[in-house]
């Protein structure tokens, strides 16, 4: 089997609990689906941002497998 591993960093908006770039995650998944891969596994890790811009970061690691 063939696999592809991708990472996308999701940035939470400063005054919200929603991610500011879920479309980027969706686009990455759809791009792999168009190539004949399906999402096999997704894991996340979070880290607080200490910068002035605020907002936490969530690192999504996705493993896709060829259909």
Could you please describe the fold and organization of this structure?
- It comes from Aeromicrobium erythreum.
- InterPro entries: YjzH-like (IPR025234).
- Pfam families: DUF4177.
- The chain is of the alpha+beta class and 67 residues long.
- The chain has one domain.
- 19% of the residues lie in helices and 45% in strands.
- The protein has one helix at 22-34; strands spanning 3-11, 37-47, 57-66.
- Strands 1-3-2 form a 3-stranded antiparallel beta sheet, covered by helices on one side.
- It is elongated and about 40 Å long.
- The number of distinct structural domains comes to 1
Beta content comes to: 35-45%
Approximate helicity band:
10-25%
- Our Rg estimate from Cα atoms comes to 14 Å
Number of helical segments with 4 or more residues? 1
Low-confidence stretches: none
N→C terminal distance: 9 Å
Topology:
Blueprint: E1 3-11, H1 22-34, E2 37-47, E3 57-66
Antiparallel strand pairs: 1-3, 2-3
Label this structure with key terms.
alpha+beta; DUF4177 domain-containing protein; 3 strands; elongated; YjzH-like; 45% strand; 67 residues; single chain
What's the gist of this structure?
InterPro entries: YjzH-like. The protein is of the alpha+beta class. Helix content is 19%, strand content 45%.
